[in-house]
Design a protein that fits this description.
The chain has about 240 residues and is α/β, with parallel strands linked by helices. The protein has 7 helices and 11 strands. The N and C termini lie far apart (about 35 Å).
Length: about 240
């Protein structure tokens, strides 16, 4: 277990599956969409993922956890420079922690948000990825036209069938070299191929940067997502 002011490692059931002798993942959780007065998930309405968001799954069900996430999100909105300065310190601390264990530090900044971190400066660097080239950053995103330029930042686009306009953006994501994550309601419903691409199991671990290129990453619905009827969850 490791905990910073904004990041933490070892408390998420999904990321723990990939933690071990080679990798450890730290993750940051904010409150999604417009929950704290700032929209940190610009495609949430189009994708229909608001009700099925993992924000309330696991420890997110506790009011104290939600309050902490809200404070972080409000801080990000009200004082971006200080927030990024603290994030820089957290990453430094996590890198030192991983060095002692002899493992590769991995970080998901958008645990329950979809912020374009590649556009936000930190210290004298263009973004957090440039500041820490030794860290493997990765995220899921619903912004299909995000183009990854940092060699240590991996993105997986999150599919939704909530409406045809959003669903068709999978072609944009594919053109940008992004794999596509699809959430299914039941394990037995997952096919071997979807959207014209082979399907791989994304619930074995959370290390999306290890997935082969050109695949659909199958995820299973969790928390409120099991009852989602928006089209975000397939089936």
């Amino acid at each position: 277990m490791w905990k910073g002011n904004l990041l933490s490692a070892g408390s998420n059931a999904k990321t723990r599956k990939g933690d071990g002798s080679e990798y450890v993942t730290a993750i940051m959780y904010l409150v999604p969409w417009k929950s704290a007065g700032i929209n940190v998930c610009p495609m949430a309405e189009q994708a229909g993922c608001i009700e099925g968001c993992l924000n309330s799954a696991g420890r997110g069900a506790f009011s104290s956890v939600q309050a902490g996430r809200a404070r972080k999100t409000q801080w990000f909105a009200s004082d971006r420079a200080e927030f990024m300065a603290q994030l820089y310190k957290d990453v430094q601390s996590f890198v030192r922690f991983c060095a002692k264990l002899g493992v590769q530090p991995c970080i998901r900044l958008n645990g329950t948000s979809d912020i374009r971190w590649e556009l936000i400066k930190v210290s004298s660097f263009a973004n957090i990825f440039a500041a820490f080239p030794m860290v493997q950053f990765y995220d899921y995103t619903k912004i299909a036209n995000r183009k990854v330029t940092a060699p240590n930042y991996h993105l997986t686009w999150s599919y939704s069938g909530a409406n045809d306009t959003y669903a068709k953006q999978h072609a944009i994501a594919k053109a940008n070299g992004l794999n596509i994550a699809v959430v299914w309601r039941k394990v037995g419903m997952i096919p071997k191929e979807y959207l014209g691409l082979p399907v791989v199991d994304g619930d074995k671990d959370d290390l999306r940067f290890l997935d082969p290129k050109g695949v659909v990453v199958a995820l299973y619905a969790k928390g409120k997502a099991r009852k989602d009827t928006s089209g975000f969850v397939i089936g």
